[in-house]
């Protein structure tokens, strides 16, 4: 056991995976000598050498396309995109190629690839550094999508993603990188893909969140508890495939739900969660499911970040509105 | 063979009339030359047959190779079994020469979902529809070979139109930086659908683009199968021995339409087509040489044609007879293990299929 | 008035726009001499010359990026992407650049660009030719998205899109290109962006669709009518911004809804429509909103297209299930 | 000036010690040379000030220009008013020389949403964060000029790292095919964050990449402001007169970190930095020449420094004093006319802002 923040947990997981399987390699811009712009790969170049911790040219489609080839040839590449906002350049490779290697070849070839990228508001970075694009990946058959919120899950889900035989998009919470420490087991363990977790039990309303928004939701739950409102907080952890049972189970219990995400509201993942509730728990609903999300504008310049991002206060208001519907 | 910097002339072994080019020795073993010829005749015959199959409505579309047989056969023959090939809708012939069962080509153009399942040991990726996307993948596979110490190589096949895509550029740049054992085979057939080479890029040649990546670039007469074979053999050997990637520009011509949906008379000058068809045909060129070298005659031609016709007929029959799979097969290779929500969707499609087949009511 | 199919209506609209405003130009792969692979731009090169009907190199990001520059400089480019499945290559330019030109420059620069592309199943084309990617665009602030179903709307919406001061993604139904003829006025007229239309009045259930799926929905409504079920069919026409009033109004009237689209179900646009109904008409719902959509697999090879695409029969079954909920 | 094919040497007017290079005449008018100098001193001073402003927490981040002043000033001075400039986070100095109000730069790095609103007549696009994405846009603007018959040109500025992106490639290829009046200015400063030039591309130079597009390519000493000006002037004139696009590779060096978030000691050899800083500084080089030419002395230097310090102080004050706009401004430039759903969201943000400001309860 060690006390690690989320970034250190990722670094630890990378080291464990690379030590355990010499097919695993890490590639991306500035991941080697520099240890990644956030130091996620700190120390790995010295440990595993330049053939396995690879500084690439500045070309996201090139990173993704060559990573696909490496995976298909039998290696286990982990491709880092420096910020998720720069993944659009690689969409043709990731959304149409990686996702379909197994399918196009009817199982003959596969693409065991992990794509890592930080996303979300958090470091007052210039535009495009904070974009939350998870809905695009979730809408793409053939991909899996993971978005841990805690150091423990970060390590366990990353190790599970690396072991997975299919391409996994692994999204890291920029604002959660160094937000707090937690006990993380040494060595290898996995957290299963496709399973959400109840991070706080409650009875009156379910708040559904992932990644950095889990912490924000928990903060809202604290405020509400002081007011006597019992909030259940569900951390989805895996965004594709979604854990339908966990969502439906919790909403059938509480009868009310609020979905929280950073991305723009319209056609965001919140909509799919509402659709799942519509499909399986409509008769249990006491009020419309509320969405506390980013607005339908680009994730704004640093000065306006705080006005854009869901806050505990906005969640509290949404919960109250839901309760008094 | 010559790198671009040594000579700007297309490399040619046989002149258009089948006589050896000046200062060139032909020292390939006769059996290899005969193989080249047989494969080209197969390619032409198969292509004709698939064109008419499409016209009869048995294929949903088809992209003919006619005119480009020499470079594709040369490429296929230069590949070793443990080399990998990645190509497009038009590169079926090269893939077949490299070991892909021929019936997979018509099966693909029938729209069959299992058409691209290569047999074990055949290292041919599914034909790529999205222009240039296979190129970085090829570099990745080659990189994998280098990292694993394999002594093999990869060929990425594409048209001159593909060189305009960013994917080509990023891939070639990675290949240069990481010195991966890859050969970029650009079949410059003059046209990208209706866009002529002159409007595709202002560069002097395609081969010269290699300079942008610090890799070797060569031009070859892609209608000269011996020259094509030599160029590919040379480039693949360089790759296998760690000397680096090569961009091979094969000058060739598409004699048919872009695909069966295309009408080239809308954009392509008739005289241009006629010149290529009548004076630069790759198949006739080698035949003329073989005949002059005493390696070929009408009797052998007749027997080859019979063989090839039989093989083509048999192949087409296999492809056409292959039954349609049940519709739920669309789910079967999305993931190693189907997620629960997809299980339910799969059942829906299965029931729908049985309903349509009259096996289920409602 | 002329009797035109949808493709001819587009061709007509292009001619009208180019004749009326010399800033309008058309660019893309094979749009010139060849008149477009479907002949949408047939005859325009001869009429307007090679400076305005431009065959480009084969490079979607190049097309999109240069079109943005042309638009910002003051021209009115219409960029054709040959098939929507090949637009991923241009996502970085379209989703992050075109959409934000006005926003990044605080109004100083704008991007009056129209992106045209056919999409959806319809011509038994090889993979990637039929992909339905509308949800990606709708999730992107700063873009408008249009998807006409009829020749009349196709012309009127295209002219409105060209006049619009912001970037508009104009999606053309591949299977609807030559499906039928309708009276289309000569010369210029517009159909307003942002307005849905009720194409069939009904009382018991609302079927919500766009593009090629409108025809499929109408066919389902015919079958159901024979059975005494009264179906309202709403053609959204514009997908961003969505016509919330039209959706909500119809569902409040009928109390039941079915959404139909070709794209994969999960996180598709159907989910957003359910979310809108959840927000504004939950109490009116007599049954969960049903989704009849593509499955969560890549749009399959031609042989399986018919098993993938929503059919009148699948819609009929969904309506019946909704009615008997 | 020389095209790549004529010479592979970087073009230099002043040697590193400020003496004219062999066989070169300096015939620029003194006022132009003094302008170059003043702008470089302004650039260096402003940069230092913004670095410390960021360290004090007044800017959320900053990307320093130090070391690259010569090419940026040379570029800015070579542009005409009706030329357009598109650059990155590091190209603020060139944009200011071209007419962008200097306070917009710190305002941008404060994260102010209105920082990139150029005044009318200033043709500078918002600084581009996404590497290489401005390059095709620049080609499009240039193409628009050609189509409208304007006699102006466009410069696209980017680093050598950007040349690895597909967007660079597609843009340069379009420029070649459509002969647009654009200059591609690549500031090769040796590093893309931690990636050295040698690992970015295996090509011999950046300039040689021009061959892949059939456009002109030249290399220039980007720490030599006179040579930089000449190269840009030449390339822009070529563009304006319809002779075609040019790729200018300016050899320079980033003296500071990539941005204030970066720690270059992790990856960059100290000796390399020292060599560039101590012997190839662009500002000192021109000053040495001017002094020797009798155009400069300590008194003028003192008075310039006073002027520049005042101007920098004033500019920074303007930028820091600029009030934060109300949060709902995030909606104001999404569309020409706000759609109804966004109206409602805007009201929500407005209320939230007033609530936070204590003006509203609940
Ligand atoms: C990314 C992408 N864009 C556009 C298309 C449509 N398309 C198919 S083939 C083709 C022309 C290809 O020309 P070239 O690369 O020269 O190959 P050729 O067909 O001549 O063999 C185009 C534009 C596509 N398939 N993929
Ligand atoms: C598309 C994209 N990918 C990655 C980044 C992250 N990033 C910012 S600057 C930079 C290096 C740029 O190097 P270069 O082009 O040489 O310009 P320089 O910073 O040296 O001026 C990287 C990788 C980005 N901003 N955009
Ligand atoms: Mg071609
Ligand atoms: Mg650089």
Shape of chain B: globular
The overall strand count of chain B is: 7
DSSP strand tally of chain A: 14
Task: Round the Cα radius of gyration of chain B to an integer and report it.
Answer: 21 Å
- Looking at CATH, the homologous superfamily of the largest domain in chain B is Thiamin diphosphate (ThDP)-binding fold, Pyr/PP domains
Beta-strand percentage of chain B? 5-15%
* Average residue pLDDT of chain A: 97
Helix content of chain A: 25-40%
User: What is the average of the pLDDT values of chain B?
Assistant: 95
**CATH H-tier superfamily of the largest domain in chain A:** Thiamin diphosphate (ThDP)-binding fold, Pyr/PP domains
What class, by secondary structure content of chain B?
A: alpha/beta
**3D shape of chain A:** globular
State the helicity of chain B in percent bands.
40-55%
Give the distance, in angstroms, between the N- and C-terminal Cα atoms of chain B. Answer: 68 Å
Using the coordinates shown, work out and report the CATH topology of the largest domain in chain B: Rossmann fold
How many domains of chain A? The number is 2
| CATH T-level fold name of the largest domain in chain A | Rossmann fold
Q: H/E element string of chain A?
A: EHEHEHEHHEHEHEEEEHEEHEHEHH
**Residue windows where pLDDT falls under 50 for at least 5 positions of chain B:** 1-8
CATH architectural group of the largest domain in chain B: 3-Layer(aba) Sandwich
Give a written overview of the molecule.
The complex is a heterotetramer, with two copies of chain A (325 residues) and two copies of chain B (362 residues). Chain A has 325 residues and is an alpha/beta fold. Chain A folds into two domains: 2-184, 3-Layer(aba) Sandwich (Rossmann fold); 197-323, 3-Layer(aba) Sandwich (Rossmann fold). Chain A is 36% helix and 20% strand. Chain A is built from twelve helices and 14 strands. In chain A, the strands form three sheets. Chain A has a seven-stranded mixed β-sheet with strand order 3-2-4-5-7-6-12, with helices on both faces. In chain A, helix 1 (6-20) packs parallel to helix 7 (151-163). Chain A is globular. The relative contact order of chain A is 0.12. The mean pLDDT of chain A is 97. By secondary structure, chain B is an alpha/beta fold. Chain B has two domains: 4-321, Rossmann fold; 328-361. In chain B, strands 1-2-3-7-6 form a five-stranded parallel β-sheet, sandwiched between helices. In chain B, strands 4-5 form a two-stranded antiparallel ribbon. In chain B, helix 1 runs antiparallel to helix 10 (282-292) and helix 1 packs across helix 11 (298-321). Chain B is globular. The N and C termini of chain B lie far apart (68 Å). The relative contact order of chain B is 0.16. Mean pLDDT of chain B is 95; it is low at 1-8. At the A-C interface, helix 4, helix 6 and helix 10 of A face helix 4, helix 6 and helix 10 of C.
């Amino acid at each position: 056991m060690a006390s690690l923040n989320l970034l250190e947990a990722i670094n630890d997981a990378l080291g464990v995976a690379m030590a355990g399987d010499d097919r695993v390699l890490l590639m991306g811009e500035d991941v080697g000598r520099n240890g990644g712009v956030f130091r996620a790969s700190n120390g790995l170049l010295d440990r595993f050498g330049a053939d396995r911790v690879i500084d690439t040219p500045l070309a996201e489609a090139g990173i993704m396309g060559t990573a696909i080839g490496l995976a298909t040839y039998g290696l286990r590449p982990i491709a880092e995109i420096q910020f998720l906002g720069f993944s659009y350049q690689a969409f043709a490779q990731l959304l149409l190629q990686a996702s379909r290697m197994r399918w196009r070849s009817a199982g003959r070839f596969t693409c065991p690839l992990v794509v890592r990228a930080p996303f979300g508001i958090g470091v007052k970075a210039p535009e495009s550094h904070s974009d939350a694009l998870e809905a695009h990946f979730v809408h793409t058959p053939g991909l899996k999508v993971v978005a841990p919120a805690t150091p423990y899950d970060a390590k366990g889900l990353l190790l599970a993603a690396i072991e997975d035989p299919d391409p996994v998009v692994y999204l890291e919470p920029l604002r959660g990188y160094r937000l707090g420490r937690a006990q993380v087991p040494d060595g290898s363990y996995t957290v299963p893909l496709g399973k959400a977790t109840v991070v706080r039990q409650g009875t009156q309303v379910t708040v559904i969140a992932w990644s950095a928004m889990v912490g924000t939701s928990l903060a809202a739950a604290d405020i509400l508890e002081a007011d006597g409102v019992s909030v259940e907080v569900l951390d989805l952890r895996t965004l594709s495939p979604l854990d339908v049972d966990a969502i439906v189970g919790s909403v059938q219990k509480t009868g009310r739900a609020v979905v929280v995400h950073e991305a723009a509201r319209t056609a965001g993942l919140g909509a799919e969660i509402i659709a799942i509730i519509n499909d399986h728990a409509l008769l249990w609903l006491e009020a419309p499911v509320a969405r506390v999300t980013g607005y339908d504008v680009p994730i704004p310049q640093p000065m306006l970040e705080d006005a854009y991002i869901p806050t505990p206060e906005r969640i509290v208001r949404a919960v109250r509105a839901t309760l008094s519907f | 063979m010559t790198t671009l910097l040594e000579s700007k002339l297309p490399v040619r072994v046989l002149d258009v009339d089948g006589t050896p080019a000046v200062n060139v020795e032909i020292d390939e073993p006769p059996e290899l030359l005969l193989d080249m010829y047989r494969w080209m005749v197969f390619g032409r015959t198969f292509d004709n047959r698939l064109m008419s199959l499409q016209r009869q409505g048995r294929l949903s579309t088809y992209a003919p190779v006619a005119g480009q047989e020499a470079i594709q056969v040369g490429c296929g023959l230069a590949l070793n079994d443990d080399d990998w090939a990645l190509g497009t809708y038009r590169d079926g012939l090269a893939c077949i020469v490299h070991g892909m069962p021929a019936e997979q080509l018509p099966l693909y153009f029938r729209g069959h979902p299992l058409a691209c399942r290569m047999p074990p040991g055949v290292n041919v990726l599914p034909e790529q529809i999205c222009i240039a996307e296979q190129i970085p993948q090829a570099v990745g596979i080659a990189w994998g070979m280098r990292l694993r110490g394999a002594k093999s190589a990869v060929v990425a096949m594409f048209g001159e139109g593909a060189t305009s895509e960013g994917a080509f550029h990023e891939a070639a740049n990675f290949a240069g930086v990481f010195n991966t054992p890859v050969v970029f085979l650009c079949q410059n057939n003059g046209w990208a659908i209706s866009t002529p080479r002159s409007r595709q890029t202002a560069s002097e040649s395609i081969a010269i683009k290699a300079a942008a990546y610090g890799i070797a670039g060569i031009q070859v007469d892609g209608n000269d199968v011996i020259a094509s074979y030599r160029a590919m053999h040379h480039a693949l050997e360089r790759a296998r021995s760690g000397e680096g990637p090569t961009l091979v520009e094969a000058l060739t011509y598409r004699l048919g339409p872009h695909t069966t949906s295309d009408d080239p008379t809308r954009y392509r000058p008739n005289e241009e087509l006629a010149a290529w068809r009548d004076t630069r045909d790759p198949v006739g060129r080698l035949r003329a040489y073989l005949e002059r070298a005493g390696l070929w005659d009408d009797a052998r031609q007749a027997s080859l044609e019979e063989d090839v016709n039989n093989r083509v007929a048999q192949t087409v029959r296999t492809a056409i007879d292959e039954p349609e799979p049940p519709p739920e097969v669309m789910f079967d290779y999305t993931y190693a293990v189907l997620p629960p929500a997809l299980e339910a969707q799969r059942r829906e499609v299965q029931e729908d299929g049985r309903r349509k087949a009259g096996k289920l009511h409602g």
